[in-house]
Amino acid sequence: MTYQYIKFFEEIGIEDIPLVGGKNASLGEMYQTLVPNGVPVPNGFAITAQAYRYVLQENGIWEALKTLIGELDPHDMDDLQMRGQKARQMIYQAELPEDLKKEIVAAYSDLRQLCGEHISLAVRSSATAEDLPTASFAGQQDTYLNIRGDAAFLDACKRCFASLFTDRAIHYRIDQGFDHFSVALSIGVQQMVRSDLSASGVMFSIDTETGFQEAVFITGAYGLGENVVQGSVDPDEFFVHKPTFKLGARAVLKRHLGSKKIKMVYSSGNTKEPVKNVPTVNAERTRFCISDQEVLKLAEYAIKIEEHYSKQAGYQKPMDMEWAKDGLTGELFIVQARPETVASQVKGSILSSYTLTALDKTLMAAGRAVGAKIGVGRVRVIESVDKLNEFQPGEILVSDTTTPDWEPVMKIASAIVTNRGGRTCHAAIISRELGIPAVVGCDNATEKLKTGDRVTVSCAEGEVGFIYQGELEYQITETDLSDLPIPKTHVMLNLGNPDLAFQHSFLPVSGVGLARMEFIINESIKVHPQALLYPKRIESETVRKQVADLTKGYENGQTYFVEKLSEGIGTIAAAFYPRPVVVRMSDFKSNEYASLLAGQYFEQKEENPMLGYRGAARYIDGEYQPSFALECAAIRRVRETMGLDNVIIMIPFCRRLTEAEQVIEVLGRYGLKRGEKGLQIYMMCEIPNNVLLIDQFADYFDGFSIGTNDLTQLVLGVDRDSSKVASSYDERDEGVKLMIKWAIEGAKRTNKHIGLCGQAPSDYPEMAEFLVDLGIESMSLNPDSVLKTIPLILEKEAKHTVKV
Fold first, then answer.
1. How many degrees, rounded to 5, is the angle at CA 344 between CA 342 and CA 350?
2. What is the pLDDT of residue 271?
3. Contact between residue 425 and residue 260 where contact means Cβ atoms under 8 Å apart
4. Which one-letter DSSP state was computed for residue 64?
5. Closest Cα to residue 3, out of 70, 51, 38, 57?
6. Catalytic residue among 426, 490, 504, 753
7. Cβ count near 282 (within 10 Å)
8. Is residue 176 over pLDDT 80?
């Protein structure tokens, strides 16, 4: 049959947006160009925008619609709802012309012949002004799933046409400056993937929170994908690093296990409600919805899709994609792709950072952070869409979840908080577009927060977002990086929290001079490593159960430790790749190890842990070595499996030459042989003996990093943990500065790298200038000190006062 109003995907390209809308044009483009390149896309067809215009024309409702919408007050929620409902009713009640109806039914028949008689359909709207580089229009019109039979299909088409005038679509077009009647609606008709029997989700070829473009971000949950898209479920999350993937590495960078409390499945024989939500079972909630191999396959598809559209555009074009896994065949499909329209559109070189300055904080709720910002205001708990007219500008919207119908009030909120949803849910997507913070997936926010509460919503502290009591003080720092020169002295970063790595990767630094392993162990692993190796030595049954709960889903405690630690280190290394990242092996003191879960069963009490069983002494001790072997395995996984060979390892608190010799031998025994596969090993230069014997220590290490914190306490004989003698602790003391000078001279004498990663230059600008004078190669600063210290370094370098 020759069609006038139907275009199958094989006939459509990206240039056909005016005819079939952005969604369908992208599907056709992928079907034609990417399916042959190994990206599976379910077959289907588009009912063109001409058909929509034909329906309105034949039924004579153009002028009535224009009058109805032309008199709209977009700020009056009741008026918007009334006019939107009338517009939808007008279009839905319009008759489909007979010739159009015959074409639609015939195309459905053709698709059944191609894909099988028993297929069901996904019927999606595709507006001619959607999926543009600067405005996605995502979720503004309606989607109908599991549609079967001619009657149900024709009814779904009429509902799709009518959904061009949903309340949210009307309001969105006004906000975006689009004329309601220059936009038409095409319908996408696609074979349903049986993800109701498996899993589905959303993925981006960019980190949606920070705009970091070198990662694929994948979310997923059980059942049909609408729950993930609409934020009705807390999904699993995965990241894959694109540069190393392209070089052949095959590893998930990091992951988050979502609660996935419900899943959307087919209803049986009910055409009015073709899908329904059912609870997931505990076994589903406690495991990831797809395997690592499937995550990597999806990442491959995402990279291919981004590369295709980037080649077309002539610049890197991050993409927003939906995927589904067929539970019958096990196949993965891409069911939608459009340009990412928020993170990728951030222009200019202004770096903004939000910092909560309040010290006294009372936590009320927490969830997944969206946007690295802070918002304060009065809470308004909204339970349903018919209460939206109660919302006042500047309030903080708190709800179970949000849908596109909520967008008119979301745009006037100072922050958004939801019980349900992940970082690709509707609330998250819209908050990013609006540039306001959101905390999603709090589980109980509507119980913990009450209308009228004054609160602070903080998304500036990593992947976890916090809601604190009261309107707390915070500061915003903005820096223009466009004309900032790069110093000759390498400025690097001190960093422990992997959650902040992507965000801080935009700082003008040469890499990470100190990645603290202790932070990852403390925050992500939480358990003493020996408790994971020897759980039977844990005397408390309660503590044993806590350890077992943390490691649930992992093969054993060792696997848990290695995977968690490697994901944390790998995230930092990926954020700065290929810039060097210096990872310090664990430097907990015995009292700090004892504070980890089950730590009291494996640590002896020391009178002065600062000078006790720490650093290299642990690594070479036979009793502790199996735990150190886990750290080594994590580093190997980062460098070899993840392909992040920019990682340099650093040994802390190495007291004597015999320890240096032994620790190098132990590292080699556990697969970290100096020089092999490009591995470099540094030593913390933080003990006077390290400085005095630096020429001999240089035989064992590739470089040194001066740790001013411990060096100061040992030169001055001051316990830096003691408040009684705190006034005597000063990195600027002449004796400390002399030790630093000798260390730099010794490293230069032996042709070894020399940097500094202590606190001093972050706290005292004059110390940074002092280090430049001595000709240090690099100094590692805290993130909040980088931008204010670089001008000082540049000024000092410009005066040519560097000593030779």
1. 95
2. 52
3. no
4. H
5. 51
6. 426
7. 8
8. no
Distance CA 359, CA 348 (A): 33
* Residues of the domain holding 22: 6-192
Query: Which among 414, 366, 426, 23 is positioned nearest to 219, based on CA atoms?
Result: 426
pLDDT, one tens digit per residue, over 400-415 is: 988 777 877 888 999 9
Q: What is the CATH number of the domain that holds 718?
A: 3.20.20.60
Quickly list DSSP for 421-459. Answer: --TTSHHHHHHHHHT--EEE--SSHHHH--TT-EEEEE-
- Residues 613-625 have pLDDT tens digits of 999 999 999 999 9
Residues 641 and 746 in one domain: yes
- Rounded Cα–Cα distance for residues 420 and 399 (Å): 9
For residues 195 and 225, is the Cβ–Cβ distance under 8 A?
yes
Instruction: Tell me whether residue 214 is in a domain.
Output: yes
Q: Are 30 and 41 in contact (CB under 8 A)?
A: yes
Question: Which tokens belong to 13?
Answer: 């390209």
**1: in domain:** no
H/E element, 575: helix 557-576
Asked which of 172, 192, 212 is the last residue of a domain, the reply is 192
Domain boundary among 478, 495, 511: 478
Q: What is the CATH number of the domain that holds 330?
A: 3.30.470.20
- Tell me whether the omega of the peptide bond preceding residue 578 falls within 30 degrees of 0, making it cis: yes
- Would you call 757 a catalytic residue per the annotation? yes
Averaged pLDDT of the chain: 90
